[in-house]
């Protein structure tokens, strides 16, 4: 091991980098800290606790799961950014996560107390009045108990398979001369919470109701202890590790891959209880999960129910406790009654989500479906959800009207595989040509190409974005999208789909930077160009915005640029393995992060100063998985007015002292002083409305 470490230190400098997983945990703590920001409406702060919780779930399923796999396969492998082995990374993760659970519990309790003052009460069955108790007992007896499926673990009832993140109520039971476990899964057919009778907004969770009446379920056993629990399973099964045939049976084979995910081993045990838990060590032993991977918490184990609570608020509570509604700018407001395809033909259009409506793009698509000049529509779809229904129906209608429609449908979008597959039959039946991507590569690019034959010539309208084609997420993710009739970009998009159809990942493009062929090399070339300017004493600079940066080559290139005298300003929302501000190493690199009302999701890469700035919007983060193992597109923004708009927005974000934090030489987040003015997202909401006025 020592020889491996020495060899790594000789080849890789970890003095200005940090561990990816610990960086992510610090980011998620930033999300949790939003729940303590008193400038955020009170109920919105509770939503940040939910986001933190669901983020942590996925982190354990994917990242912790992959580290466990790596620990078994390559236990001595040294991470090139932290110098840690997989086992050492896991130990650090478990230690840091335990601290975060304690912090989450304290914040959750405080928010509950504050919400009670505003009439939103999370009831505990032991503390309710007679009328409410009778109501809940009747509900339990008549509605809940008949649909529950309790089980006692004994010789005739072996320990069952526990689904990933399935909530169960567990009870340690005295059974003759020994102790056993009784468990009750929640009833999926019934709501997660029940509103109490009367005029106040008071509720109880289903698992708490079951827990309170366990004696009515396990009637012939004394109950020693009771808790709610869940296991988190490794979900890092990669379809490309499986033997799959990219032919007619690919969809069914993907379904088999998803079945295998259900059976992967657990990596975490969570227990919800007040105080110590006797259930935890029993389950830890039975599931073979070390106690260091077992977390006892007072807060609910999953919290998506909080979004449904808002539906029961009075108008006064909603105004007092939630963000005021924001109506994004519509196509009519911005462009009037003109056909959107004509608008795009007359000049490039930049869309800024969520400040402008995703319906603007849908209007372009609707016009294309009904246009006699449009001969084909081609699009990449990464995540299919409820926000895709209108878009998918337009594509189906276009095919039924005789247009050539191609959908590059990524079936390997993690945790959305089933949603994506559910659309396959409808698309096929309509005559849509479906591509499924590549072995070893996910297609993450966001591009739509509309091809017209007008006056005997082929013309293009191309949409390239930084986010998914999803009307729902477009309301709370910040993204950019370019709609253009530029012939060169259209030809690149046409070549892209042609290459995708023939499994050519190494195609060449006139304007696009496309991973895995030219994105990383193009970015390295652009960074080298700024280094050359600095060495010649010319104006130079790099401005970058992305979700994460982990790619070692790109990190090292930025470090070289900074030491050469190039000022580098970055807005990195999440994982940041590059540590800025270290004297002599990264002191010319400045990295900020924004966590606010909307999820910062746009990727911007800008090189240079003034009118000579080269600027790209992209689907890719600077992670090796994006630059080498995915199909991604970075598209240039060439119209000066649009470049100026994007760079002004970047400048506002970089100088956001409300929701922005700077990353220090310690790799941690720090407040930016002075804290004054409005946060960037509020500024953009106002500016979008002012532009149309």
Task: Describe the fold and architecture.
The chain is an alpha/beta fold. The chain folds into 4 domains: 1-117, Polyphosphate kinase N-terminal domain (Methane Monooxygenase Hydroxylase, Chain G, domain 1, Up-down Bundle), CATH 1.20.58; 143-322, 2-Layer Sandwich (polyphosphate kinase like), CATH 3.30.1840; 331-508, Endonuclease Chain A (Endonuclease, Chain A); 514-692, Endonuclease, Chain A. The protein is built from 22 helices and 27 strands. Helix 13 runs parallel beside helix 14 (389-400). The radius of gyration is 27 Å and the shape is globular. 40% of the residues are buried.
What's the name of the CATH homologous superfamily of the largest domain?
A: Polyphosphate kinase middle domain
Uncertain runs: 238-251
- In percent, how much strand structure appears in the residues? 15-25%
- Specify the oligomeric state: single chain
Tally of DSSP helical segments: 22
Distance between the termini: 66 Å
Find the structural class using helix and strand composition.
Answer: alpha/beta
Largest sheet: 10 strands, mixed
What would you report as the Rg, rounded to the nearest angstrom? 27 Å
CATH hierarchy class name of the largest domain: Alpha Beta
Mean pLDDT across all amino acids: 91
The CATH topology of the largest domain corresponds to polyphosphate kinase like
Q: So what's the overall shape?
A: globular
User: How many strand elements?
Assistant: 27
Residues in helices, as a percent range: 25-40%
CATH architecture of the largest domain: 2-Layer Sandwich
């Amino acid at each position: 091991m020592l020889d491996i470490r020495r060899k790594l230190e000789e080849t890789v400098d970890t003095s200005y980098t940090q561990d990816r997983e610990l960086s992510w945990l610090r980011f998620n703590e930033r999300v949790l800290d939003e729940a303590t920001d008193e400038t955020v409406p009170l109920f919105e702060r509770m939503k940040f606790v939910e986001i933190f919780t669901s983020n942590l779930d996925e982190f354990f399923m994917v990242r912790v799961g992959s580290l466990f796999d790596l620990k078994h396969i390559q236990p001595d492998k040294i991470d090139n950014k932290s110098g840690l082995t997989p086992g050492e990374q896991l130990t650090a993760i478990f230690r840091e996560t335990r601290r975060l659970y304690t912090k989450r519990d304290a914040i959750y309790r405080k928010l509950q107390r504050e919400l009670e003052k505003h009439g939103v009460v999370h009831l505990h069955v032991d503390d309710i009045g007679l009328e409410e108790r009778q109501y809940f007992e009747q509900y339990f007896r008549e509605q809940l108990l008949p649909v529950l499926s309790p089980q006692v673990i004994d010789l005739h009832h072996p320990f069952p398979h526990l689904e990933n993140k399935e909530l169960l109520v567990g009870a340690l039971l005295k059974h003759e001369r020994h102790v056993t476990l009784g468990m009750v899964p929640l009833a999926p057919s019934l709501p997660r919470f029940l509103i109490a009778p009367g005029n106040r907004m008071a509720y109880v969770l289903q698992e708490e109701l079951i827990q309170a009446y366990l004696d009515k379920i396990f009637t012939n056993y004394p109950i020693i202890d009771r808790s709610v629990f869940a296991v988190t399973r490794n979900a890092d099964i990669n379809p490309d590790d499986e033997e799959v045939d990219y032919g007619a049976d690919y969809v069914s084979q993907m379904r088999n891959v998803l079945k295998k995910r259900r059976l992967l081993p657990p990596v975490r045990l969570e227990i919800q209880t007040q105080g110590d838990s006797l259930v935890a060590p029993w389950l830890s032993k039975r599931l073979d999960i070390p106690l260091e991977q077992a977390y006892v918490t007072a807060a609910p184990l999953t919290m998506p129910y909080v979004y449904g609570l808002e539906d029961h608020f009075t108008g006064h509570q909603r105004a007092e406790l939630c963000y005021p509604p924001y109506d994004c700018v519509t196509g009519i407001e911005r462009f009037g009654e003109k056909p959107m395809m004509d608008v795009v033909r007359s000049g490039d259009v930049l869309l800024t989500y969520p400040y402008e409506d995703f319906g603007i793009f849908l209007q372009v698509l609707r016009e294309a479906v009904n246009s006699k000049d449009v001969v084909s529509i081609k699009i990449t779809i990464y995540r299919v959800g409820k926000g895709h229904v209108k878009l998918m129906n337009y594509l189906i209608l276009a095919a039924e009207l005789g247009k050539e429609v191609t959908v590059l449908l990524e079936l390997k979008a993690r945790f959305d595989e089933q949603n994506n597959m559910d659309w396959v039959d409808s698309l096929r039946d309509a005559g849509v040509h479906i591509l499924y991507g590549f072995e070893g590569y996910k297609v993450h690019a966001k591009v739509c190409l509309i091809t017209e034959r007008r006056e005997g010539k082929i013309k293009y309208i191309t949409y390239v974005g930084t986010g998914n084609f999803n009307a729902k997420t477009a309301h709370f993710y910040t993204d950019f999208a370019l709609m253009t009739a530029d012939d060169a970009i259209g030809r690149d998009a046409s070549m892209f789909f042609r290459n995708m159809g023939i499994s050519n990942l190494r195609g060449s493009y006139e304007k696009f930077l496309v991973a895995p062929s030219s994105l990383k090399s193009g970015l390295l070339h652009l960074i080298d160009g700024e280094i050359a300017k600095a060495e010649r004493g010319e104006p130079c600079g790099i401005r970058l915005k992305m979700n994460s940066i982990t790619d070692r080559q790109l990190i090292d290139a930025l470090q070289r640029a900074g030491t050469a005298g190039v000022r580098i300003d970055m807005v990195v929302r999440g994982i940041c393995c590059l540590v800025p501000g270290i004297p002599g190493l990264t002191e010319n690199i400045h990295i900020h992060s924004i966590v606010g009302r909307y999820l910062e999701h746009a990727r911007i890469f800008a090189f240079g100063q003034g009118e000579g700035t080269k600027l790209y919007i992209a689907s890719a983060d600077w992670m090796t998985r994006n630059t080498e193992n995915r199909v991604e597109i970075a598209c240039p923004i060439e119209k000066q007015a649009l470049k100026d708009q994007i760079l002004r927005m970047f400048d506002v974000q970089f100088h956001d002292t409300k929701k922005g934090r700077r990353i220090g030489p310690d790799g941690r987040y720090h407040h930016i002083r002075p804290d004054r003015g409005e946060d960037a997202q509020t500024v953009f909401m106002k500016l979008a409305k002012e532009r149309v006025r």
